[in-house]
Amino acid sequence: MNTLMPTPIVRIVGDAESVCHDQLAIEEPLAVGIAFGPIRERRRETISITMRTPGDDADLAAGFLFAEGVISEPRQILEIRPHDAGNMVCIELHPELEVDLSRLDRRGYTTSSCGVCGKTSIDAIESNCDGPRSGGRSIPPSLIHSLPARLHDVQTTFKQTGGLHAAALFDMDGNLLGVREDVGRHNAVDKLIGAEFRAGRVPLDDRIILVSGRAGFELVQKAAVAGVPIFAAVGAPTSLAVELARRLSVTLLGFVRDGRFNIYSGAERIAL
Questions:
Q1: What's the mean pLDDT in 75-89?
Q2: Residue-level pLDDT at 2
Q3: Helix axes 185-198, 57-67, angle to 10 degrees
């Protein structure tokens, strides 16, 4: 799957100019459709149109449905297939699954930068979830300090474009288990969690997620739904993200870079 597009540019360094080519991260729309209901009375709905980087579309769609509480088990997905027209995936859901479309109040256009556009209220945004399990081992600050460099080493498309967000999954020893890149930070997290969900590895109760940008409300929500105990961001968290992390006992770390980080919630999981 091609994620890069070369484009001619004029580069200025000081007062000197040169004509060359630059690599752009491709951004294209993806429509996510579902088919649900009894076999003889199947309904088909387009539930989301999001701007994303092509690739891992099945994981993106599955992660989105899981985070929104529409599905809870991999077996509830019968098939995920690309549409013949392109830039669309169709998800066939189990006939016995009761689909609550009210969970998808943000149906419609979603930008690559915002995963909650179109939500009408905090009640509609926040999924019903218990968050990660309590207890478990705590980890030293040195392990957290090491994660940004490990993420940077595997951000292959970002190195060529500088235009993608990334989400990485680590175990409690700091081993990298997976990474996804996308023009949308929420898409990257959906792809990452969706891959684990489809493989039957959710809940992720002994895992760490690190994102390359800020920690917004919806990213923390997605991690909490997946049972992730530690969510770390290279950038800043938002006020709602901190409130949600504290409510659901997620350890939320911000400004994880240059040998420092802030703990906004769940300090007990960091061995100080």
A1: 88
A2: 73
A3: 90
109 and 150 inside one domain: no
Q: Which two tokens stand for residue 138?
A: 């705590």
- For residue 201 the two structure tokens come to 């590895």
Q: Count of CB atoms within 10 A of residue 215's CB?
A: 28
Residues 195 and 90 grouped into a single domain: no
Tokens, residue 159: 């190195």
The enclosing H or E element of 28 equals strand 28-36
Whether 178 and 199 have beta carbons less than 8 Å apart is answered as no
Domain with 167, as residue range(s), is 141-269
* 153-187 as b/e: b if 16+ CB within 10 A: eebebbeebebbbbbbbbebebeeebbbbbbbbbb
Calculate the alpha carbon distances from 246 to 219, 229, 265 in Å. 14, 12, 5
CB 180 within 8 A of CB 195: yes
Overall number of domains in the chain: 2
Mean pLDDT of 48-55: 88
Q: Is 201 inside any structural domain?
A: yes
The tokens of 104 are what? 């998808």
Catalytic residues: 114
Query: What is the chain's mean pLDDT, rounded?
Result: 86
Q: Dihedral sign for Cα 104, 108, 112, 114, please.
A: negative
Reported pTM: 0.86
Final residue in a domain of this structure, among 64, 93, 125: 125
174 in a structural domain: yes
253: its two tokens: 């770390």
User: What is the spatial distance between Cα 255 and Cα 166, in angstroms, rounded to a whole number?
Assistant: 15
Tokens read off for 95? 């006939």
Q: Tell me the β-bridge partners of 36.
A: 43
Residue type, 137: R
What is the per-residue pLDDT across 173-189, written as a single tens digit (0 to 9) for each?
999 999 999 988 899 99
Between CA 196 and CA 77 the distance in angstroms is: 14
